[in-house]
Amino acid sequence: MKIEDLGFNDTFEKLRNEHNLGDFEIGRVIAEHKERYIVKTTNGEFEAEITGNLRYSAKSREDFPAVGDWVALIIYDADTAIIHGILPRLSVISRQAIGKFGERQIIATNIDCAFIVQAVDRDFNINRLERYLTICYSSKVSPIIVLTKTDLIEPLELKEKVENIHQRLKNVPIVAISNETKEGYESINDKIEKGKTYCLLGSSGVGKSTLTNNLSGKKLMRTDSISDSTGKGKHVTSHRELIILENGGILIDNPGMREVGMTDSTGGVEQVFDEISKFAVNCKFQDCTHTNEIGCAVLEALENGDMNKHAYENYLKIEKEKSFFETSVLEKKKKEKIFGRILKDYKKKDIKGKKY
User: Fold this and answer.
1) What is the pLDDT of residues 33-68, one digit of tens each?
2) Cα separation of 191 and 195, whole Å?
3) Residue 157, C-beta contacts closer than 8 angstroms, at least 6 positions apart
4) Backbone dihedral region of 319: left (phi > 0), alpha (psi from -120 to 50 degrees) or beta?
5) What does the pLDDT look like over 181-226, one tens digit per residue?
6) Would the N or C end of the chain have less CB density within 10 A of its end CB?
């Protein structure tokens, strides 16, 4: 296997040299298990840990390796290695960490394209699609919507769902497939390019693991059925894992996500809700929140029926979450700064109080 087969290219080689990591072996993190990592290199797969220095210098969980990362490591024997550095990430897909305000949870890194997977029989939800698209656009990752389980509904109903997506979401590719009949698989395979990295995003039970197995031609991921009592999928995939497909594409499967908390701060919301952005240019006030202001062109468009009401309501929810996350980050930094001053003062007093 060549390093390029894992997605390595000239850009990563340049970053490797710029950060003086040329003397280390280079590998890609393909799986993570509680701060122990499986790293794939041209010499095979190794179980790896990070150095104490990396652990000490990490300011948050984001500074630890994640699936998709390129890492510099030293191989010690046939099975183990130590990670000494992480190459800068070209893209990071993340969400609000559940129960941890102001913290991001990395889903995957160095992604070229994300397959946003929804089942058409019971998981279909355009509001959730808009959330995933916001994450993708803010991460500079190209999205493709994949509708699964098309064999469970009538063709006319499928056509209606696709049209509903197009009405809300412009210029987003849509592929409809059946994991049972393999209908639509030719279309999705045509979108996978050698050396490019793809990830699967979606709730539990939408068919991501089955899709992974079918695309790879192997049973790599355990699959399970939908619960009849709750109508919800089960978390069959319990960790993120990177897989090289037969056609040379690279795929990262992810555990199902029931919550998609917003962290966006780099234009993803504006790109998804571009219709609102278009009207907002004509608002009377530059800092218009589009909720109750006089002279708001967005509210005027909504009243005139020139804007989708459901898209507008979802926009307000996502904007509220995004603002809350950004406020939480600022509050967290403020508390850390205060704690740092207290610690610094304590150390000064401790030094003065010592007797030699």
Assistant:
1) 877 999 999 999 999 999 999 988 888 888 999 999
2) 12
3) 120
4) alpha
5) 999 999 999 999 999 999 999 888 888 889 999 998 766 554 454 4
6) C
